Amino acid sequence: MTIDADALARELTERIEAAGDLKALDALRVAALGKKGRITAEMKQLGALDAEARKAAGQALNAVKQQVTEAIERRRAVLEDAALEAQLAAESVDVSLPVRPERQGKLHPISQTMDEIIAIFGQMGFAVAEGPDIEDDYKNFTALNIPPEHPARQMHDTFYLSDGAGGADMATVLRTHTSPVQVRTMETVTPPIRVIAPGRTYRSDSDMTHTPMFHQVEGLVIDKTTHFGHLKGCLQDFCSAYFEVEDVPLRFRPSYFPFTEPSAEVDIGCSREGGELRIGAGDDWLEILGCGMVHPRVLAMSGVDPDEYQGFAFGMGIERIAMLKYGIPDLRTFFDADVRWLDHYGFAPIEVPTLIRGLTP
Ligand code: DAH
After folding, report:
1. What separation in Å is there between the alpha carbon of 153 and the centre of ligand 1?
2. Which of 259, 261, 260, 282 is nearest to 270 (CA)?
3. How sure is the predictor about 359, in pLDDT bands with cuts at 50, 70 and 90?
């Protein structure tokens, strides 16, 4: 046996431990273990030895191979760690840089409009209340003074989900309006109450101007002396802020809703000259919401004493006021999930609407 296995192992291991980077380490691996490597070459010579010597030398070389392989793995781990450390130290992310335009998603106009509505009513001291899309028959209808067999039920094109084994009131529906959130709020909150409830609503209706799912925002104010004048002032302030038109003309038309008395529908003044709709000017009117003083029976059913408290409510279609403000001509396009449409009508997600900095970018 001509080789000194220990010396070979020591020499190779020392070099491996001195390797400065992964490339140098790989070169050393090839030089030791590759086809033409040192250890491979020694292995080839074993054939010339007699059986006894071959066995001893073979074992010794295998041990060298093992040691060298382990040394390489240890060094690789050290070098990889160091490389990662170096990369982390060298790279930095400037989080204050603007988003690259090609990477920027857009907020859906419904989300934007809801954010604007919340910003305006938030400023007036309203809290945001929520209720589930799947509502029970009682809160969607009965508690709003729409008992079973009431003709108003027919007008709602309701999606019924289950017929309620526990009685008719327990049947579930997809809520046909956000008004049941009034009930939920009055059942749980002691007045004074001042909430809005934006959210999805559903009716089995689909044509040019109706989609089976749409959005409403409900408003509810209950206190001891709240009156119709407060309702008018509140809606006037909201419409002026939302449409960004000072003293936007509003018209309150007497109407009927089972849950309010008196009730009104509100129109906003506009002009339609040359096919272009302009809010706040001219002699034309567009209906935007329903409202009224909460019916005493509705208060009582939800545990609010009508002899002590009174208040107003309103309900507004969000698509409708989004279309009016942003000139979106077709309701159905809201729910086509067409990214080109969203790219055109959508909003920058980091521009949060506030009354101070402006509602719209
Ligand atoms: N819930 C009504 C609807 O969907 C809208 C409405 C009218 C809500 C008058 C109200 C209200 O709170 O007072 O048609």
Report:
1. 13
2. 282
3. confident
CA of residue 314 to ligand 1 center, whole Å: 6
Q: How far apart are CA 217 and CA 165, in angstroms?
A: 31
> CATH number for the 109-345 domain, one of 1.50.10.10, 3.40.190.10, 3.30.930.10, 3.40.50.300?
3.30.930.10
- Checking if the pLDDT of 117 tops 70, the result is yes
315 lines ligand 1 (CB under 6 A): yes
In the numeric block, which tokens belong to residue 145?
């003074």
pLDDT tens-place string over residues 193-216: 999 999 999 999 999 899 999 999
Instruction: Average the pLDDT over 167-187 and give the result.
Output: 92
pLDDT of residue 2: 57
User: What distance separates the 2 farthest-apart alpha carbons in the chain?
Assistant: 116
pLDDT at 1: 46
Which ligand 1 atom minimizes the distance to the CA of 260? Answer: 13
177 and 216 in contact (C-beta within 8 Å)? Answer: yes
Bond before 349 cis per omega within 30 degrees? no
| 289 closest CA partner among 226, 234, 225, 329 | 234
